Amino acid sequence: MAATAGRGSYAKSAGVRRRILEVCADAFGETGFHGASTKDIAQRAGISHTGLRHHFPRKEDLLAAVLDLRDERGTAFLRSADAVDPDAFPVEALRGMLDLVVDHELQPGLMQLHCVLSAEATAADHPAHAYYAERHRQLRAFYARAYTALARGGQLRSAVDPETLAVMTVSLVKGIQEQWLFDRETVRIEYALRMFLASVVPELGDESGR
């Protein structure tokens, strides 16, 4: 009986933590890290401020947990050994990354969260500065590896070097996402990105009309 009670208590605690992080993600997406207060987050979660501090002693702890929770698939894709190797299978790797970007379109709250926080985090003293610096580095490295492999195989149609092309691609994705948040009726994230990729990787051309 004691073991059953313990499991129930753990599940309840995990549920509270999850609810806190969900409302926290909304708060950070609306007003940024600095604009959201822990008292407001506690109120949204339906718990006391003391209860919030029990699970997350510092506001920075909340931020780290929210970023981990809201970008689980992206982090796994970039870090997992099971992800398609951009060196060996560059076209498939680009398709996989495109699927990930499209998945974000189905989660506008996630996209807004990253747009707001990444803009704030350009300040060197922001608690998410290191997170986004590493996130952008990983993305640039991923695209650069894919483009380099394509260039070696004669599949890349661009006069731009792979590293610079990677910077341009990451910037394009971020810019399209921000435009979509302002105009969801006109901006088509998947189509725009597919058209760009098809312009530099002819093999992806047959998918550009999706």
Q: Gyration radius, to the nearest Å? A: 20 Å
**Overall geometric form:** elongated
Give the N-to-C terminal Cα separation. Answer: 56 Å
Number of strands: 0
Overall tally of structural domains:
2
For the record, what CATH class of the largest domain applies?
A: Mainly Alpha
Mean pLDDT: 86
SSE run: HHHHHHHHHH
Q: Report on the biggest sheet.
A: none
Number of helices: 10
Question: Approximately how much helix is present in the residues?
Answer: over 70%
CATH topology of the largest domain: Tetracycline Repressor, domain 2
Strand content: under 5%
Summary?
With 210 residues, this protein is mainly alpha-helical. It has helices at 2-35, 38-45, 49-55, 59-70, 72-79, 90-105, 108-120, 129-152, 162-182, 189-200.
Overview of this structure, please?
- The chain has 210 residues and is an all-alpha fold.
- The protein has helices spanning 2-35, 38-45, 49-55, 59-70, 72-79, 90-105, 108-120, 129-152, 162-182, 189-200.
- The chain folds into two domains: 2-67, Homeodomain-like (Arc Repressor Mutant, subunit A), CATH 1.10.10; 71-207, Tetracycline Repressor, domain 2 (Orthogonal Bundle), CATH 1.10.357.
- It is elongated, with a radius of gyration of 20 Å.
Any chance you could write out the topology, listing elements then pairs?
Blueprint: H1 2-35, H2 38-45, H3 49-55, H4 59-70, H5 72-79, H6 90-105, H7 108-120, H8 129-152, H9 162-182, H10 189-200
Helix pairs in contact: 1-2, 1-4, 1-7, 6-8, 6-10, 7-9, 8-9
Using brief descriptors, characterize the structure shown.
Arc Repressor Mutant, subunit A, elongated, 210 residues, 2 domains, 10 helices, mainly alpha, 0% strand, Tetracycline Repressor, domain 2
